[in-house]
C-alpha cells in the first residue's frame, strides 16, 4: 500500500483550521494546492472530511472521531524527525515573532534584543502588540512566543510562568495622594488599560466587597497611553508591578501600593507544543527568560509550577 504521510499533515491542518483557506495559510500553500490535498485525503479515507454548511465548513463525524489521533501522530512525527541536539546560534538564520504587552516590550525589549543579537547575529525579531481579540496565532505559527498575563486555554499550548507580582497604583509625581486607603482610592477618577475597551475590571469587584465604587472615566488600549493621561492629570491607573517599574521617574510618575487584597498577577511565556523539540526555539526561550530576569521580572519561587499545558482560562483584558 502506497502511503503519503504528508496527507496526515494536511488533514491535521484542515481539522484545526476548519477551512481550506486557513489550512493553506497555516501550511504556506496556495488554496488550489490545499484543495488538491483535501481531494487526495477524501479518496484515501473514503470520507468527505469537511462539508459546506452555509458560509462555513463543518467536519464529518469521521473527521471529528480521528481529530485528536491525527494531531497526536503529526506532533509525534515532528518530534521524531525534527532537529536534535544543541543549536549553533552563530549560524542560526531565522525570524522569530514575539507578542507581548506594550509596557513589557518597553521594559524588557532592549534586554531581549541584546541577549539574542549578542549570540545570534543572524536572528531577526518581530515584536507584535497584544491583539484586541482572542486569536489562534500561536497555533497557526504566526506568533512564535507570547508573553502575557494568565495562562492560555488551548490544550496544545505550553506555558511557563516567568514572573509576576501584585498591582500598583500609578499617579503623576505631583499627585495630592501620598498613600492610599480603599476609600481615598475609590474617590479618585480612574483610567483602565484594556485592549477591548472595558471600563470595569477585578478591582471594581474588590472595591464592591468593601461597599465602595470608583469612577472610571476613560479606557485606553495600552499602558503607554494610560501613563500619558495620568502624567497630565489627577487620574489613577492600576498596572502590574512589573510593568510599573519601567521608566516611571522619566515619565514624571510614581507608584503606590493598592489598599486592596488582590490575587497576584502571573506573567506567562507561551508557545505551541510543536516547538517543544525545536532546539532553536528552546534557545530563544532561554534567552527571553534570562532577559526578563535582567529587566527585573521576578521568577517564581521554589515549589511554584513552572510549566503548564493548556486548560486554564486566560484573563480577559
CATH architecture assignment name of the largest domain: 3-Layer(aba) Sandwich
CATH superfamily of the largest domain: Periplasmic binding protein-like II
Helix content: 25-40%
Tally of structural domains: 3
Region (Disordered): 295-317
Organism: Streptantibioticus silvisoli
Pfam families: HTH_1, LysR_substrate
Family: Belongs to the LysR transcriptional regulatory family.
Question: Quick recap of the structure?
Answer:
The protein is of the alpha/beta class.
How does this structure look, described?
- The protein is α/β, with parallel strands linked by helices and 317 residues long.
- It folds into 3 domains: 6-81, Orthogonal Bundle (Arc Repressor Mutant, subunit A); 89-165 and 265-309, 3-Layer(aba) Sandwich (D-Maltodextrin-Binding Protein, domain 2), CATH 3.40.190; 167-257, D-Maltodextrin-Binding Protein, domain 2.
- It has helices spanning 6-17, 20-27, 31-45, 61-81, 102-119, 137-140, 182-187, 202-208, 223-231, 241-244, 279-294, and strands at 50-53, 56-59, 94-100, 123-128, 145-149, 157-165, 167-172, 189-193, 215-220, 236-240, 253-257, 265-272, 307-309.
- The strands form 3 sheets. It has a 6-stranded mixed β-sheet, with helices on one face. It has a 5-stranded mixed β-sheet with strand order 9-8-10-7-11.
- Helix 1 (6-17) crosses helix 4 (61-81).
- It is elongated and about 75 Å long.
- Mean pLDDT is 85; it is low at 299-308 and 311-316.
What attributes does this structure have?
317 residues; Arc Repressor Mutant, subunit A; D-Maltodextrin-Binding Protein, domain 2; 3 domains; six-stranded mixed beta sheet; 38% helix; elongated; disordered C terminus; transcription regulation; LysR family transcriptional regulator
